[in-house]
Amino acid sequence: MLVELEDVSKRYQLGNLWVDALRGINLTIERGEFLAVKGPSGSGKSTLLNILSALDHCDSGSVEIEGINLSALNEHQCSLFRRRHIGIVFQSFNLIPVLTALENVIYPLTLSGTVNAKARAEKALEAVGLEQLMSQRPTQLSGGQMQRVAIARAIVSQPNLILADEPTANLDSVTSESIMSLMKQLNREQGVTFVIATHDNYVTGLASRVITVRDGELVEDEPSPPFTLQEAIA
């Protein structure tokens, strides 16, 4: 088992109101899964990923990844844990515009003091098919290419878990197919566990398992029916 959540709840205050973003979530994720989290906007998908990535803490319950209780970690420890164990792919790419593709991928390695950072970053960019574009800045890249840089940055630390929040939301269908094929390839060939928040049917169609979050609650947890990306888009 890679991830275990027990009775996880999270509330946010909006003005004078308290909103239950997550309510009593129980979830286990095995190594090597390709898991999709679906649900409407505001259902709690992003909050769940934020808690899994140690960017936020739950108010109650427990979150364990690699056998480590994230709730027991302080902010510095969470940051170290995230760099070593988790890769994150954001909907808006979150690349640093003044850095090249290679420098963006190197950046998290420099924060952790990793040796051979340049060689590892080059290898990660090669894995996502961008070996010819390493010197380009984000403004010189297409949306799909920027997302590939973001994926290279996520895998460069060789994490066991990658969290992706709506990774195809800003991409056209052809580019989305390419990005999802890349993620499936990384999952299949490198054994990386993926948790992908989405509301798109073609993404859930590729998942080995789909959970549905609605109003902060996990309401469905089932294997995904096997069909191809082309069928999902159709």
From TrEMBL:
Keyword ATP-binding: yes
The keyword Transmembrane helix appears for this protein: no
Domain ABC transporter: 3-232
Pfam families, per the entry: ABC_tran
GO molecular function, one term: ATP binding
InterPro entries, alphabetized: AAA+_ATPase (IPR003593), ABC_transporter-like_ATP-bd (IPR003439), ABC_transporter-like_CS (IPR017871), ABC_transpr_LolD-like (IPR015854), MacB-like_ATP-bd (IPR017911), P-loop_NTPase (IPR027417)
Keywords per UniProt: ATP-binding, Nucleotide-binding, Transport
Entry's Gene Ontology cellular component terms: plasma membrane; transmembrane transporter complex
PROSITE patterns (alphabetical): ABC_TRANSPORTER_1, ABC_TRANSPORTER_2
Protein family (similarity comment): Belongs to the ABC transporter superfamily. Macrolide exporter (TC 3.A.1.122) family.
Protein name, entry field: ABC transporter ATP-binding protein
